[in-house]
């Protein structure tokens, strides 16, 4: 019933979904992944025969190594012959580079066995906009916006030259969005310190017992609308009050910006 009797409203007209699942359905993502796993299982033998050496998929994007360029159209024909509504397109390597999601893969041909480097990929339509420093949102949102792209650079860039170039690009972008230079440097330094600490630590810690439920009982959550500095003042007073009234509890404030 969940997959064959779905209905949706469009322009005040009620429609019945006769194929697939409607966008936003709670079942859509998991059912699509199940179907694609089945699709791969059925078609993989034929794909290997036609030259596929490596097949990695994320949702509906795949990254593949094939025997040579002559195999591409044969592989595409296999993929697009299985179901009329499941149609693939292909993007091939250009100038020794290929993008996959937000990763740019660079082939290095200086050795007998090719090696690969990775850095951050941005679409040609990238505008350089991010959460601006004067946006009327909680400070934690702005800090998170900057830390997110710094962490992405650290995880994607495969060597320190590419990482340095990406961090310089992030600095310029953040400055254009109004962030002070010292704030940017502190965030980069914090994330790089975490990287160095994790790289230098070889100690394997034993698994700890699951204490999620115990920790959850320690916290009280409170959502309040964001109204600038007054919100932070109110949040601090509320935390102070809870600390005195409920010493075993910790208050977690969730500041919601205006819609």
Automatic annotation (TrEMBL):
InterPro entries: HTH_animal, RT_dom
Segments forming domain Reverse transcriptase: 1-131
Lineage: superkingdom: Eukaryota
Protein's recorded name: Reverse transcriptase domain-containing protein
Source organism of the structure: Didymodactylos carnosus
């Amino acid at each position: 019933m969940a997959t064959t009797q779905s209905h949706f409203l469009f322009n005040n007209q009620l429609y019945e979904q006769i194929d697939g699942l409607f966008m936003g359905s709670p079942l859509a993502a998991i059912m699509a992944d199940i179907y694609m796993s089945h699709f791969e299982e059925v078609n993989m033998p034929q794909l290997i025969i036609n030259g596929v050496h490596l097949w990695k998929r994320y949702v509906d994007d795949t990254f593949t190594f094939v025997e040579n360029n002559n195999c591409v159209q044969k592989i595409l024909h296999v993929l697009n012959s299985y179901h009329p509504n499941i149609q693939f397109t292909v993007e091939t390597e250009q100038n020794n580079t290929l993008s996959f999601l937000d990763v740019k893969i660079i082939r290095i041909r200086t050795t007998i066995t090719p090696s690969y480097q990775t850095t951050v990929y941005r679409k040609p339509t990238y505008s350089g906009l991010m959460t601006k420093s004067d946006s009327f949102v909680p400070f934690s949102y702005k800090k998170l916006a900057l830390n997110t792209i710094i962490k992405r650079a650290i995880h994607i860039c495969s060597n320190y030259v590419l990482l340095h170039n990406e961090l310089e690009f992030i600095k310029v972008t953040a400055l254009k969005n109004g962030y002070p230079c010292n704030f940017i440097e502190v965030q980069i330094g914090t994330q790089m310190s975490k990287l160095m600490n994790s790289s230098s630590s070889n100690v394997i810690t034993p698994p700890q017992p699951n204490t999620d439920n115990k920790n959850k009982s320690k916290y009280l959550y409170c959502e309040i609308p964001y109204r600038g500095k007054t919100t932070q003042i109110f949040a601090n007073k509320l935390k102070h009050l809870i600390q005195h009234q409920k010493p075993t509890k910790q208050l977690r404030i969730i500041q919601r910006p205006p819609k």
